[in-house]
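Q: what sequence does this backbone want?
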């Protein structure tokens, strides 16, 4: 699957950059996958799977999915 890490989430990408490619043997809960690859769930504000906004804690993903994760945006 392809995972896009928006905002400061690219800091957690060992492949360095905004996109990660991950292979899974079977579908997995997105929250479990993020835990496995070291992305803190508290840092993810918006989750988009295959173009649809989804709930992070309820979503299942597989190798055919494109997942986009965005952190909260702050300014001042």
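A:
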């Amino acid at each position: 699957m392809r995972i896009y890490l928006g905002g400061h989430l690219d800091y957690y990408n060992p492949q360095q950059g905004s996109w990660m490619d991950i292979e899974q043997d079977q579908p997995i809960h997105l929250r479990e996958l993020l835990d496995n690859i070291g992305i803190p769930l508290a840092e993810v504000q918006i989750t988009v799977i295959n173009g649809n906004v989804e709930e992070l804690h309820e979503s299942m993903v597989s190798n055919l999915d494109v997942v986009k994760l965005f952190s909260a945006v702050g300014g001042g």
